Amino acid sequence: MHDVIMIRASDWHQMTDGSDVTGLKYKLTDYAICGQAEPVRMIFHTAGIDYEEQLIEKDNWCVIHQPPPAERMPVLCVTKPNGDTVVYKERMAISRWLAMQYNLMGTSSSEYYLVEQMLSLCLDLEGQIRFVLGSDGERQLDLMEKLLRKDTPKMLEIICKAISAPHGLLVTGNSVTLGDLFLLHTLDQLHCLDPSILRSDYPILTAHRNAVYDACPRLVQYREKRPLIVI
């Protein structure tokens, strides 16, 4: 038998009001060669939260004279006002937890669903991209052609329908959420593969990006100055 946890609609705001984040200090550690932690950075800049970052070469842990904090990156160390430190692992778990703390997972259960729906779509597309990049030689060329000419257009059409619903251009319609940020991140990866794929066929994606930028000037400033993200 499974335990069932019931959450009342009136309790939703209590889960997302960020009341327990005062005085927290954040240190984000990631390998310098990949963009796994980019959604986490985007959350920090959207919410206007200061954080420390440590980017390291994968083989250079000896330089800082300590063992890797985890087998997989990124890692987020959160220090409380009393000095206690909690280490958070796994990119998506970190992103969801941090987004929940700063009201970026929606303000109701229905909005939460919309955010998770977009995350699911983006992760599917990202998984296809990484599968292609992990292949070799002629097989990679064949898979890349299929990805860009068949699989990606199909997935982008589904994503466009998700953000063209009556509630508006943003994923939930009301405010920027992790769903919006992760969509921008996923489209960045597509742009690295083929800058032309998003130029003319998907105007709603351009409109979505502009809507996010209008709502998040701090995010715009960060994205204009950030280093190249390698996927």
UniProtKB/TrEMBL annotation:
Its EC number is 2.5.1.18. Residues 24-106 form the GST N-terminal domain. It catalyses: RX + glutathione = an S-substituted glutathione + a halide anion + H(+). CDD domains: GST_C_Sigma_like. One of its GO terms (molecular function) is glutathione transferase activity. The keyword Transferase applies. GO terms for biological process: glutathione metabolic process. SUPFAM superfamilies: GST C-terminal domain-like (SSF47616), Thioredoxin-like (SSF52833). The keyword DNA-binding does not apply. It comes from the Eukaryota. Keywords: Transferase. PANTHER family: GLUTATHIONE S-TRANSFERASE (PTHR11571), HEMATOPOIETIC PROSTAGLANDIN D SYNTHASE (PTHR11571:SF224). Homodimer. Conjugation of reduced glutathione to a wide number of exogenous and endogenous hydrophobic electrophiles. GST isoenzymes appear to play a central role in the parasite detoxification system. Other functions are also suspected including a role in increasing the solubility of haematin in the parasite gut. This is glutathione transferase. It comes from Fasciola hepatica.
